[in-house]
Amino acid sequence: MQVCPDVHLVDGVSCNVYIITEPDGLTIVDAGLPGAQKRILAAVGALGRSPRDVRRILLTHQHVDHIGALAALAAETGAETWASAGDTPAIEGRARREAPHGLLGPIFRLAFFTRLAPATIAHIVYEGDSLPVFGSEGGLRVIETPGHTAGHICFYLPARKLLFAGDAVRASNGGLALSPHMLNLDTAQALQSVRKLAAMDIAACLPGHGAPVTTGAQALLAATANQPALSRV
Ligand SMILES: [Zn+2]
User: Fold this and answer.
1) pLDDT tens by residue, 121-146
2) Rounded CA gap, 229 and 216, in Å?
């Protein structure tokens, strides 16, 4: 499904996976749960492109519903991979992976982490880095937004006021909300990151969960940033 020009949402994957189409190739943002590569590559095919046209895979963060198919996708496409310094050790399986607080944590570790194939990150990125995506429009920028995970990042295209938000916010009930406390490493820090986003010029917000917001995201981010107290549910 096309979300906005050159950006497509893959249906039926555990998190929102976006495909960016450019003349020189495709970029995939986030990679779904283990096994999601079939649907993602089917979506690539539906765009009239082949797996070898996928040149880059960008990861917003280390959670298993965003990196599960990374190793398989990288192997099938030959794409280069991009992630933050904070989350790369966990993505590569060299550090303990972050899991939900409470009872869900052990369940996640058993159900999903055991199915994660080792993946390699070719490019570690930092705040303000410009990526070779949408290069003709000034390039996609890295915005560090820690809290949901230690190394959570968003990708921002100033020329279009377009944000790939990952799980910095999720779309819910017509608005944008923080992820539930149990899914965040540090919810207070996650709120600070939303305040950082709310101070930017963002019109379209494409989150990792929930329906993409293609206009008017600024006001929704401001409303989330200005919430008086943190919910711990
Ligand atoms: Zn997440």
Assistant:
1) 999 999 999 999 999 999 999 999 99
2) 24
